[in-house]
Amino acid sequence: MLTIQNLYKKFGSLVAVNNLSLAVAPGETVVIMGPSGCGKSTTIRTINRLIEPDSGSIVFDGRDITQLREDELRKVRKRIGYVFQHFNLINRLSAIENVMLGLVMGGQAKEEAYDKALAAMTKVGMEQLQDHKPEQLSGGQQQRVGIARALAFEPELMLWDEPTASLDPMLVREVLVVMEELAKYRAATMLVVTHEIAFALHVADRIVLMEKGTVVESGIPSQVFVNPASHVGRQYKELIE
Ligand code: ADP
Ligand code: MG
Q: With a 6 A CB cut-off, is 185 part of the ligand 1 pocket?
């Protein structure tokens, strides 16, 4: 479904992503872990070209995203959902209006957008609170609206960049539960950057460990965390024990 090969990205003289290769199979949930600054966000963001890579290829559904024209890229972006650390909901809109907004901007009729938004809100257990404004919701609820906003497009691939990192510890679980459900029902292929080790251990089909801009280890959780081959892997193993 997604094959990244020999990806490079520099910021000035700093090499953020260094010859990274990574493949994700359809329906798979892959968790990317690694120390802060190792290039996780940069990698994730090149996939929908929020960041333009310097070189390398990113093949999604048979086409190299790095080679797409602007109009083709727009179409591909609709098939790739994106959930960030900061949910950036629009405060004057209700929760469901936030979910509808992208659909309506994309040219869908309001009724159709509402139906899709409601279905997405139901998937994240937020349908009862659809008319609340973001400020009336907890951080965890706001992030669930952020997830619904991505789900409303029925994306084939979902990219997650530390979706629980800005939440109070008490609110992390409700978001992880939603993510786990999506992974379990293979609602989309998922590429997840997170520091939540328990989530990685129990939900990931495969864990990819990064260090200094590249993949240093990849495998099923029991292998990576129990018998790690990399320095980063051994550090995670110590954390678990
Ligand atoms: P991670 O998500 O793993 O914490 P990032 O991909 O955000 O790491 O960053 C990788 C490296 O690139 C870091 O050293 C970071 O400081 C640097 N970096 C990221 N974005 C930019 C940018 N827009 N300009 C300059 N340096 C950046
Ligand atoms: Mg990051």
A: no
Averaged pLDDT score across all residues of the chain: 96
Does pLDDT of 68 surpass 90? yes
Q: Residue whose CA is closest, atom 7 of ligand 1?
A: 41
Enter the pTM of the model.
0.96
**Model pLDDT for residues 121-149, shown as the tens digit of each residue:** 999 999 999 999 999 999 999 999 999 99
Please give the structure tokens belonging to residue 171: 């609110």
**Ligand 1 contacts CB of residue 42 (under 6 A):** yes
**147 C-beta closer than 6 A to ligand 1:** no
ipTM of the complex: 0.99
What's residue 209's pLDDT? 98
Contact 175, 162 (CB under 8 A): no
CA–centroid distance, residue 43 to ligand 1 (Å): 10
What separation in angstroms does the CA of 15 have from each of 20, 37, 49? 11, 11, 17
Whether 14 lines ligand 1, by a CB cut-off of 6 Å, is: yes
